[in-house]
Histidine--tRNA ligase (Pseudoponticoccus marisrubri), 360 residues
Amino acid sequence: MSLSKITAKAQDLRTAFEATGAQAVECAVLQPAATLLDLYGEDIRTRAYVTYDPVAGEVMLRPDFTVPVVQMHMAEGAEPARYTYAGKVFRRQEEHPERASEYVQVGYEVFDRSDPDAADAEVFALFFNTLAPYGLRAVTGDIGILMAAVEGLGLSGRRRAALQRHIWRPRRFRALLERFAGQAQVPPSRAALLAAVDPMAGAGPLIGMRSQMEISQRIEALREDAQEPALSGELVALVEALLKVSESCPYALERLRDIAVDLPAISPAVERFSRRCDALEARGVDVGALGFEASYGRSSMEYYDGFVFGFVEPFRPDWPVVASGGRYDALTRQLGQGREIPAVGGVIRPGLLCELEAAT
């Protein structure tokens, strides 16, 4: 597909978003690496293009627009605000070499604290209506429900933080849950370390960046963790049941309310899901035909902390999502230097829309 056609489609989408009242904004292609590393950790290096500028230091080719748009709004934006943008993003595709590492995105972002549920519905309905001619399958989820479940497990702060950090890494999350429940065998090396009177005796010279004090503190933290009571099997089963919820929205809501009877910590998040369904219905979305997957977004949407959604081409399983988005309140808090505001948005890949148009 020619870049000129993709650019024209992107401009059409951005113009349509501007017509709803969004302000068009631009973001620099080179972004400070430090900000992205603080948000995502060193893992971002496996997905982004990193280079060095003699003045700015370490920088990355823009992996998305959301982070710089949030920074811009938190520094100088008025409230409420709606933004739209169009331009290239750059992502390494080592796991999917058949996918483009440089492609165009068009986005729409809402910063509005008056009614977050209505804002969720606004963004989803805008994308739903915009993409209706393309025959895509829509799916929704809610990371906030799983986050609330973790907070309600009665674990120590350290263990809760570990699970929250790995919500977006399903295998690691599952492994931690099993370890905290005593269902996984302690590796012999760790058992020997914890049993040693002086684990540092005979350790040899230090190698790496950690000091002896940091290593000792880490060992002590592991010992404290080993003394914690095991998470009950009933709570593990409830989390597993939650993660398996995959129904149309009304049936998913019913199932989640059943789980909330035994895991009441999720009740506020579940009722927010209910209000969002009402707001979507008010905007003409057939919620009865809309799918909900409790695990949706856990592998690719790291900064979202609530409602998430995606639009996929059902006959092209090899494609990435054609459009995706969600709520990222915590990101505004992280980048707001003491300020925060509820925020939700999404992005569309116009190149994939052009391919669908060419195929019809």
The domain at 3-149+237-358 is CATH 3.30.930.10 (BirA Bifunctional Protein; domain 2). The two ends are 14 Å apart (CA to CA). The CA atoms of residues 93 and 101 lie 6 Å apart. The chain has a mean pLDDT of 88.
